Amino acid sequence: GREDDVSFMRSMGYWFGWNTVGSMASLALAPYNESVEVPNGDAMAFSRYGPRIKKHLEGLADVVQSLLHELECEEHHYSGALDVLGLTTSDHLSVALGAVCATVQPYIC
Q1: What is the four-CA torsion angle of 14, 15, 18, 23, rounded to 10 degrees?
Q2: Angle, vertex CA 80, rays to CA 78 and CA 82, nearest 5
C-alpha cells in the first residue's frame, strides 16, 4: 500500500544519496590512491620524500574540503526534491556525510 511505497521511495532516496556522493568522493580521491610510504626510522628517506608527502597531504586536505563544500550543494540543490520522498534535510545530509566519511576514511587511517 501507500506506506510501503513511501518506505520504498525513502530507501531509494537514501541509496541514491549514498551512492552518488560516495561515487563523487571516490572520483575526487582517485589521484590519492597511491600514498608515499617511508620505512620507519629512515630519516634519509623521510627527508628525501618529505616534500612529496607534504604535497600529497595538502592535496588530500583540499579534496576533503571540497567534499565538505559539496554537502552545502547537496542541501541547496537536492533537499527540496528529496523532501517529496519523505527525506528531511537532516536525513539527506546525514546520508551524504556518511558516504563522504566512509569514502575518505581509508585515505586518512
Answers
A1: -150
A2: 65
Q: Is residue 75 within 8 Å of 59, Cβ to Cβ?
A: no
Give Cα 9 to chain centroid, integer Å. Answer: 23
Which of 13, 17, 4, 1 is CA-nearest to residue 86? 13
| Residues across the chain | 109
Q: How far apart are CA 74 and CA 70, in angstroms?
A: 6
- Specify the amino acid at residue 53: I
Residue range 30-70, pLDDT digits in tens:
999 988 788 888 889 888 998 998 999 999 999 999 999 98
DSSP state for residue 6 in the 8-state scheme:
H
Nearest to 86 by CA among 1, 7, 2: 7
